[in-house]
């Protein structure tokens, strides 16, 4: 076992705990997975595209995204990790107006002290997401 393997396994475990809570619909466990100083990086050309600092700011943005899009988790495609980052690939259903699409999203996490400390959100169909969040 390499010296980095225990770190990789801890990073993977933190991401997997979050995913397990998400799949189970366990909102308190999902929120407990985020560190107090969690940072969320949201990309695109929409009013949400910025960096959110702190768990409360990030949760507020995520909840508003869900409200605007009616997003629903369809599947967890993969959860993987290296020593520095964990990556979660999910498939979600997103609705904009009368149009509903299945979108693959890649969430890249930095883990610190067994909690998710930072996230970068990458969307398969960024134009559709931009339209959803600009409406």
UniProtKB/TrEMBL annotation:
Gene3D superfamilies: 3.10.450.50
Protein name, per record: Ketosteroid isomerase
UniProt keyword Isomerase, yes or no: yes
Superkingdom of source: Bacteria
One family name in Pfam for this protein: SnoaL_2
Species this protein is from: Caulobacter mirabilis
Keyword Isomerase: yes
GO molecular function, one term: isomerase activity
Assigned keywords, A-Z: Isomerase
Domain spans labelled SnoaL-like: 15-118
């Amino acid at each position: 076992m390499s010296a980095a393997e225990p770190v990789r396994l801890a990073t993977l475990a933190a991401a997997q705990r979050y995913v397990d809570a998400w799949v189970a619909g366990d909102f308190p466990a999902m929120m407990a997975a985020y560190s107090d100083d969690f940072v969320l990086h949201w990309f695109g050309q929409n009013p949400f595209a910025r960096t959110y600092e702190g768990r409360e700011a990030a949760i507020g943005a995520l909840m508003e995204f869900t409200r605007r899009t009616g997003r629903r988790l369809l599947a967890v495609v993969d959860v993987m990790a290296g020593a520095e980052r964990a990556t979660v690939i999910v498939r979600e259903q997103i609705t904009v107006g009368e149009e509903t699409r299945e979108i693959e999203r890649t969430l890249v996490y930095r883990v610190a002290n067994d909690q998710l400390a930072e996230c970068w959100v990458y969307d398969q169909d960024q134009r559709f997401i931009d339209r959803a969040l600009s409406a």
